[in-house]
Write a structure and sequence with these properties.
Low-confidence stretches: none
CATH architecture: 3-Layer(aba) Sandwich
Strand order of the largest sheet: 1-2-3-4-5-7-6
Radius of gyration: 15 Å
Number of strands: 7
Bound molecules: coenzyme A
């Protein structure tokens, strides 16, 4: 599997981040932010904003990820966003594994969660195969074309992550 590394996003990355977010290949699957929201996520300690780079190559930017709730007293942290420009090459799986490691090992979270649009079969398949459990659906909660799409809430708990580590799945 391709390895990935994460480095903190800098303000000088934000033009690129915004262009990736508004790329028609990504737009159907996310709700893009204003540049100022990204700036906030870089500056505020409750969030972590990272650029994803390939481990083996130079410093080419492949995508970005955002955590929210890092100061949450419930130790429940959200994977707010993951967007990777190269698709279908295994980078998403490598990145989700790295993010779980960061959440459970480094941030010591109790619950790591996310939501995904029901139309986003690719991301759902990835999260489910990486051990995320579906918690429920927020019905018709986001605009999609002329209608609405539902959000599927998925999560993993620390004991579930530990069990996967013990089984060699992480
Ligand atoms: C979602 C995303 C991060 C996944 O990354 P990726 O590098 O494309 O995914 P991978 O190549 O690692 O594939 C992981 C798994 O996804 C599933 N998958 C990949 N492409 C798929 C497709 N077209 N349809 C259904 N499932 C698919 C497969 O289960 C695959 O695992 P496998 O190849 O071992 O069977 C990336 O495609 C992306 O940035 N998409 C646009 C933004 C987005 O949807 N973000 C998530 C919002 S919740």
């Amino acid at each position: 599997m391709n390895g990935v590394r994460l480095r903190p996003t800098m303000l000088s990355d934000l033009d690129w981040v915004v262009s990736v977010e508004t790329d028609p290949a990504n737009l159907p699957f996310i709700t893009p932010w204003e540049r100022t929201q990204h700036e906030g996520a870089i500056r505020f300690p409750d969030s972590r904003h990272f650029i994803v780079e390939a481990q083996a190559q130079g410093d080419e930017r492949l995508g970005f990820v955002i955590f929210q709730g890092c100061r949450n007293p419930n130790r429940s942290v959200e994977l707010k966003r993951i967007v990777l420009q190269p698709k279908g090459q295994g980078l998403g799986r490598a990145c989700v594994r790295r993010l779980k490691q960061m959440a459970f090992r480094d941030l010591k979270v109790h619950r790591f969660w996310l939501d995904v649009k029901s139309l986003n079969q690719r991301a759902q398949a990835l999260y489910a195969s990486e051990g995320f459990v579906e918690e429920g659906r927020l019905r018709e909660s986001v605009r999609a074309g002329d209608g609405y799409d539902s959000l599927i809430v998925m999560s993993m708990l620390d004991r579930e992550y530990d069990a996967r580590v013990a089984l060699g799945l992480e």
